[in-house]
Amino acid sequence: MKALLILLFLVSPGRCHPSHTFHKVIENFAVSEYGIYVSTEDHLYQLNRGLQEVTPARSVGTLLKIFVVFEKNGTLITCMTKNCSHCEVLDLKNISNTIYSEAVAVSPIAREDSALGFLMHLPGSDTYLVAAVFQREVPARCPRRDELVTLRNTQDKQSGGIFSAIGEGEQPHIKLSRKLLVVRFVDGFQKGPRVYLFLNIEDKSRPLVRLLWMRSSSSKADATNSVRSVTLECCEDKARAELVSSADVDGGPAGLWAGVFRGNETSDPTNTALALFDITEAERRVPRPDPYFCDSSCQLGESVNVMDAKPLEPLAVVFKYHSMTAVTAVSIQSRVVLFVGTADGQLIKISLDENLKPTCPAILHKSEDDRKFSRMILDPVDKKHLYVAMEKRLMAVKLDKCGDYLHMNSCLSVQDPLCVWCVSEHRCMFHSECLGPNMISISKRSAQNTIAAFEVGQISPEMIRVNLTTLLRWTGSPAFSCAFTAVGEDLCDGTDVEPSLFYCSCRFPVKRVPAEGLDIQVRINISEEVIIENWVVKNCSSITTASDDGCHECVTSGCIWNSNTCSWNFGNSRQTQAKCDDFSSTLKYLEPKISSITPNQTSFYGKNNVIVSGENLGNVAKMRIQENVNCHPKESPVLTRTSDKLTFHLPGGNKGVVTVCAALPNGKCFGSQNVRYGSLPFCNGLSPNTSWISGGRNIAISGENLNFVDEVIHKDSNSSVSKICETSRILKYLSPAQEKKVAQVNLKVANSTIPCSNLKYLPDPQFTRFRATPAGNHLFITVAKKVDELNINITELKINATEGDNVHICTPLKIEVGSEAGEDSVICEIQNQAQAKIHSVKISMGNFFTELQEQNNNFYLLTLLIALAFIPLIIMVFVYRVKQRKLSKQMNERLEMLECEIRNEIRQGFVDMQTETSALIENVGTIPFLDYKHFASRIFFPDAGPGTKCYIRDIDQDQDKKQLDGSCMALAHLLRNKVFITSFVHTLEEQKNFTIKDKCTVASLLTIALHADLPYLTELMEDLLRALMEQSSNAQPKLMLRRTESIVEKLLTNWMSVCLYGFLRETVGQPLYLLVCALSQQINRGPVDRVTGKALYTLNEDWLLWQAQEFNAVTLKVSFSVASGEESESLDVVILDCDTVDQVKEKILEAFKSKFGFPYSKPLGEIDVEYVKEGGSQTLYEVDRSSEVLGEVTLLNTVKHFQVPDGASIKVISKKAHSTLSPQVSLKDDQNFSTKYFHLIDPDIDNNKEQNPERKKLKLKEIYLTKLLSTKVAVHSFVENLFRTIWGTTNGRVSPAIKHFFDFLDSQAESKKITDPDVLHIWKTNSLPLRFWVNILKNPQFVFDMEKTPHLDGCLSVIAQAFMDSFSLVEQQLGKHAPTNKLLYAKDIPQYKKEVKAYYQLVRELQGLTNLEFNDFLHQEAKKHGNEFNESAALREIYKYLERYFNQLQEKLEQNSASGELQQQVQNVRQQFENLKSCSWE
């Protein structure tokens, strides 16, 4: 089970790091350009960069103490403990190849002794192996040496041969000058001309961290004679005298080194510290004798009285944590990045600026268990990965997450020096991957999480200035500019200083800052990149709260707090929060005190309902949680509180110790308690792993961290599960009663669930009888139990025996297996009751209970008599069964036939679904778009029909009539008065007899009348929408714009249609038309009932032809009569043998158009088809004398009826005079067509069923539901292409109308203090998808010159429903009874929802157009379609409404305080129209 949890962890999101797991703990590993080399207790492994084994594991049989990659020589040097130390040189390319082997005293013998090896490269071509070894005890069989550090040859050509330590006739070395208890080597490396060793020593039980260094010299003696050392001391707050891990900061400041130091208080949350040292500082000191180390010439003990040099202190302590175990470092762009591994399985990333100030730590990896990081090495090839060892697992972790940041703002705000914004690629990249000349990165001085700093100050009583400083650096000299705006307008007065690459400012009047503050937006342009920064300028004079709250608000706003007042900053230095520390609040709170937090340990998932005990807790507003690895504290609201106790939810976090304090309403936090986040619980298994179905069995879960479990859950069970005991490794609970055979046991931790194991449920045990046997003074009872798999333990049984009114406890003794065939025996004992007469035995196990009664001697006789009485009845049943057998056989044969038919239908449906292809259309030719005016008229007046022609201006219309007459011009002028038009609209909507249809008509008339002035129409619409939002009836904002119940809502629909026509025609039109064509072709692939229009292939269950009979495809060779009387070349047309004659004609005409690209010269109603066969031809009619008649209903003739074979010749001719049976041009023209004729769906009559046995076959609609799915598969690519075209973007842009209107909704929500993101999502969905796109999806005839059949309408409705479900925020729970149109796209909707949310987010983040740019767009749209509408007709219709409600309009104008001039204009318009009443309208 642990392996299962680890597997789930490996594939979890965000943790998919390449890894390799070994059988034993990793002792050491090294990395080279050839691969990775890993040493365990007894094996050596070679892996490639993908962490896959490339050679068989090499058995070494012992521990490798020296493990060094010699890259230049292509070898791996290893030294092990066996045979008094043994060394080998292996081939780096294949460790199976041994290049050299020698028994040489380099490695220590004992496993616990310390050793370290690394290379020292000399100025020439030589290289020495620095071998550092400390041995406390040496076996007698092995030579004892006192060398601590030796320099050994790495090649045989060197003097003395490979592994020799001899130099210049002697063996120079470094040794201890005094006896030490412990020496443990931590790290060593060469840096320039120096070699450094880091080690822990213990002198008289006093631990020290020691740095030892020497010169790198070709003379071994010169090198060892130069040895010096110094103590490294950390830290100021407390002593941490053990070095855990070390890292050279390669490429950073000279001599910079990082080390993890550990104290001796393991429970201390800051027991380890990460410190930075300049290790070259000690070299610059005056040399003095070393008290601990010397060269080979000194004697042990001679330096006992030597005084040690002053310890070396850290430049900075950058991080403290309770259990750091490993560190490595990289340097880039004057910034240092540290990677820290911990004992609880976390990999932490810390960036430092050039002043060594750390940014907020980031968690790169967090394991769910407690496997510690023991060693980390940077990939020397790509320098983009860390190889980390975690006990038995080696893992490759990417250093960065640059690719996760999609925008420059997010890329740079994380303050990761490894990430840059690559201008040429327009994306966030690892610094070495950006190959372009221009890149933008964070400043080397900044350790903040922002990329711009704001400062505000007052430069005169009337003017203030905002200064902006960018905290960035870049290559090249990019163009730089800033633009300050507020409320959509330019903010600055134009007298600002010209912006530089790092700085820009803005001056503006103080009066522009309202009391509540001014929201400003700064658009920073750097080359082609744009950064948007938002900031609030607080009005310092309006901060008047005379309290510490007011002081904090004043200081954080950049203002100056003095004498209990807040004022503007006149160039003074910026105040800090310390200014407010001594300020006494007028509202006094008793200081809360926290005595305990229960529990104070939990998993990193957090904990619900944590209890805090203490004093003065009644005023606590929230609990504040501060993590070491998170610069920003988390806050959790208080759930319940009293003066001495409160509860809150502890949120999830990172592993480690956090500090929790109680925050008052004024923001101050008191009390401090530690809470430790640990690893997640996991379970190894259940014992026992079975339960009886009645439940109540004691189940023990074994694992780790089980004390963090809140609850044990049996999935799909409604029974409660009670914990009865828990420790870190064992959790016990009672199994609930359950009918299911297997229960999945889960562990609930906070708000998450962790899978554990399966508990098998078996039937309750069956106890059959008992027997009482006296023995001495005791009575033994033997209970028979049927054999089962429950493995019941004797301690689980509770047995009571009844003697009259007395109940005796029977103590279970043992369970004997197989005492009788198929039975076990449970033996229990009643003490001192040998003569008891037991009448019954009661047995209980958990929730299971049963009672066994004493068996009477007459029981067997009674059983025999009952059996004899049943013999005659058995004989009668036997005779009856013989008679029934014959009848059953006949019934079974019929059922088998029926079952076979159903199987065939289901199999065929499965085959159709699996072999379905979407290659429905190859080329649709020219798309028949409607021109703009006809498109608009169908949107504006969808139900008006031909009556809308009066509003459309024809191309040949008299140019003189384009000019408006005086009355219309006056009304048009009046409509452009905001007071009049809003009063007019509100007046109409207040009338009870003004219907919704009237509202839609008026909105469309206004659209036509104001079409030439789209900017004004847009302003009007926005004003009316604001008024609509203010209405009391719209108190529920989520219901806004859901229906079209007002003029402005229809106006919005029209506005969207006008502004999006170009986008619809240029982008969405082709995918929509392809979808419609694909649907039509798919419907016609199978049988289509001529009468009802239902088809076998459809998306809509209501249009599913599930009564269809079997059918076959037939290929016809069709020829056409030409004018000369000859025939054209034959055309192959595929039809179905169940098609009617008219359906054959339709398919022939479609094939002709597809083949030649133009329609046939005659329509369907003017042609006939002849079946040409030997001896003549036969004209085919839908109804003739041979047609089958059932009752009063006639079956339409099909191809099968005329017995037309595959490959038959068909000739298309002009229509002849029909017989009396078919006098009409088309039977469809008959008003009673659906009642007089039938095709594939049988009429509801019982006649002649014997003549048509195939019609009696059982037909189940559900069998054919797979046809819906096969149709969906066939058109799925067209649906997805259409959807993603609608909510996609072109070159990262959307229609200006969409961006403008969505920004308008955002601003309205902000002004109304609506913070619920769901409200904005619903507004946008109701405005665009629901109001426009669904209308287009369901009505393609609005866009194209085509006819929409009812069946096609049904299919499009299913697609439109799926489209709207993609925008819904409600998660629908669909079951087997859900409508098929919902189920059909149920699996696709979640993905669509993600894409929709991403689309909305992208639109929100796009840079909006200025008012001037958007007005230009509107002018261009109006100009494209100028003079296409008859404005006069629209204006005259508008006047009819004005005249009808003239008195009410006058009252409304007076209520709105309309000017007298405006009211006079209204009277003039009325008078002008009255003067025209005697004339007819044009």
Give an account of the 3D structure:
The protein starts with a helix and ends in a 7-residue tail after the last helix. The radius of gyration is 45 Å and the shape is globular. A hairpin with a 2-residue loop joins strand 64 and strand 65. An 8-stranded mixed sheet has the order 43-45-48-47-46-49-50-44, with no helix packed on it. Strands 59-60-63-62-61-64-65 form a 7-stranded antiparallel sheet, with no helix packed on it. With 1482 residues, the protein is an alpha+beta fold. 24% of the residues lie in helices and 30% in strands. It contains 25 helices and 73 strands.
Count of helices? Answer: 25
N- and C-termini, Cα separation = 87 Å
Question: What is the SS-derived class?
Answer: alpha+beta
Mean pLDDT across every amino acid position: 84
Strand percentage lies at 25-35%
Secondary structure: number of strands: 73
Radius of gyration: 45 Å
Helical content (DSSP H or I, runs of 4+): 10-25%
Shape: globular
Taking strands numbered 1, 2, ... along the chain, how are they ordered across the largest sheet? 43-45-48-47-46-49-50-44
